[in-house]
């Protein structure tokens, strides 16, 4: 008889058709997590939208109360006092035309790009560079703002962007498995609440159709929609 592998044991212990509570799903994922590194807990939300239509796009920002456990790299387009404030708040790179040229040369290792309104003439030239990566500053997301100091602090402190993909799915990290259960639950609630509040006018029928939890190396588990108020 062939020896049962760790993967076989994981598969045998999980019912992929079951709807788990957040707590039960998290426990199972913890039980089968790698001991070699701190995996990320991730969520996928399948929504009843077609993002090809403008009135069905779902996009926004949310501050995860427990943070992300990730070092977020932030670039800021600003001059003068605003540049100084951005640096003091922890921005990794601050500049104007010099930063634009650096990005045009392919240096785009950033998780968030922020700009003051007066810098949009410069930033606008980077549309084809930043747009495909989802990094283009946007006033609706708070990344075009005169208050760059607060925007940098928010980005560094656990604020994440969510955006529905072509298939109608939102993916997001919820933090590291080294976080407490309570911390991960708080992040889950903050994100799902924000997505529900962002329900577009064009969405008809059931909005949140499926929620799954997984880890970097783990299986996917369905979460009972009753966990999400208003789903």
TrEMBL record:
SUPFAM superfamilies documented for this protein: Ribosomal protein L1 (SSF56808)
Domain of life the protein comes from: Bacteria
GO CC terms of this entry: cytosolic large ribosomal subunit
InterPro entries: Ribosom_uL1_bac-type, Ribosomal_uL1, Ribosomal_uL1-like, Ribosomal_uL1/biogenesis, Ribosomal_uL1_3-a/b-sand, Ribosomal_uL1_CS
Transmembrane portions of the chain: none
An annotated Gene Ontology molecular function: tRNA binding
Key words of the record: Repressor, Ribonucleoprotein, Ribosomal protein, RNA-binding, rRNA-binding, Translation regulation, tRNA-binding
Alphabetical GO biological process terms: regulation of translation; translation
Coiled coil: none
Pfam families with a match to the protein in the record: Ribosomal_L1 (PF00687)
PROSITE patterns per UniProt: RIBOSOMAL_L1 (PS01199)
UniProt-listed PANTHER family: 54S RIBOSOMAL PROTEIN L1, MITOCHONDRIAL, LARGE RIBOSOMAL SUBUNIT PROTEIN UL1M
Biological role: Protein L1 is also a translational repressor protein, it controls the translation of the L11 operon by binding to its mRNA. Binds directly to 23S rRNA. The L1 stalk is quite mobile in the ribosome, and is involved in E site tRNA release.
Subunit structure, interactors included: Part of the 50S ribosomal subunit.
NCBIfam families named among the record's database cross-references: rplA_bact
UniProt similarity note: Belongs to the universal ribosomal protein uL1 family.
Protein name: Large ribosomal subunit protein uL1
Organism: Tsuneonella dongtanensis
Lineage of origin: Bacteria, Pseudomonadati, Pseudomonadota, Alphaproteobacteria, Sphingomonadales
């Amino acid at each position: 008889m062939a020896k049962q592998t760790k993967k076989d044991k994981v598969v045998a212990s999980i019912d992929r058709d079951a709807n788990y509570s957040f707590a039960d799903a998290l426990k199972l994922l913890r039980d089968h997590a790698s001991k070699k590194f701190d995996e990320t807990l991730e969520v996928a939300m399948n929504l009843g939208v077609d993002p090809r239509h403008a009135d069905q796009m779902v996009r926004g920002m949310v501050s995860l109360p427990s943070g992300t456990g990730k070092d977020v790299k932030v670039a800021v387009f600003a001059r003068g006092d605003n540049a100084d404030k951005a640096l003091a708040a922890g921005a990794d790179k601050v500049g104007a035309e010099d930063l634009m040229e650096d990005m045009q040369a392919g240096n785009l290792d950033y998780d968030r790009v922020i700009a003051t309104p007066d810098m949009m003439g410069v930033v606008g030239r980077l549309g084809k560079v930043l747009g495909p990566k989802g990094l283009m500053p946007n006033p609706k997301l708070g990344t075009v703002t005169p208050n760059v100091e607060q925007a940098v602090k928010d980005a560094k402190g656990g604020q994440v962007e969510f955006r529905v993909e072509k298939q109608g799915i939102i993916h997001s990290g919820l933090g590291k498995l080294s976080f407490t259960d309570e911390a991960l639950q708080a992040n889950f609630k903050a994100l799902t609440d924000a997505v529900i509040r962002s329900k577009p006018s064009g969405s008809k029928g059931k909005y949140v159709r499926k929620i799954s939890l997984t880890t970097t190396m783990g299986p996917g588990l369905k979460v009972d929609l009753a966990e999400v108020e208003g789903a």
